[in-house]
Input
Amino acid sequence: MSNDNKWELFEAECKNCTNCGLADTRTNVVIYRGSKTAPLMIVGEAPGNNEDLQGLPFVGRSGQLLQFLLGSYGLTDEDYHICNICKCRPPENRRPTAEEVKACKTLLGKQFGLVKPKVVLLCGSTAYEAFFNAKPVMKDVRGKFIERNGYLIMTTFHPAYALRNPKMKAPMLEDLGLVCEKLVSLGLIKPIPKINE
Ligand code: URA
Output
């Protein structure tokens, strides 16, 4: 089966999913934006109101910050695949419950299998917990690569947290810089142009 056909099936499966109660209140299932074959997968928590309405992840205020940070290193849509731990919006933007995270894991696993990223950037504690089954102390876990199942995984703050705590924007930029360096060193993206180039 071609990759396009696999994606068609996968997206249909996501859109028809009723594995948890969030199916009852969603407007759209939010699957991804960016490239289907990107070397970098960026994983947030769950869609908010804007994402639910547009059917795309990180298109609200958090998305603007994330996009600014990505753009600072010259990364484009070709370089990343942006998605969330949960594909449906939790009402009132609450955190997804452990049951909702679990219900969405099979689809996320399939998504990883299709995209086959080399590097993964987890944004925030919900994404970290879903991957490592442990509550993180964010200041301790951020900015370090962990190798798991063939993926190089970096954790950073959630952009919404950095919007509430603007001092966290600099460490986020730093973490993303390390991610870019790694992608460059693996030959997966072009070197980042220096300011005067
Ligand atoms: N916050 C997230 O974690 N994901 C989104 O898509 C938007 C906001």
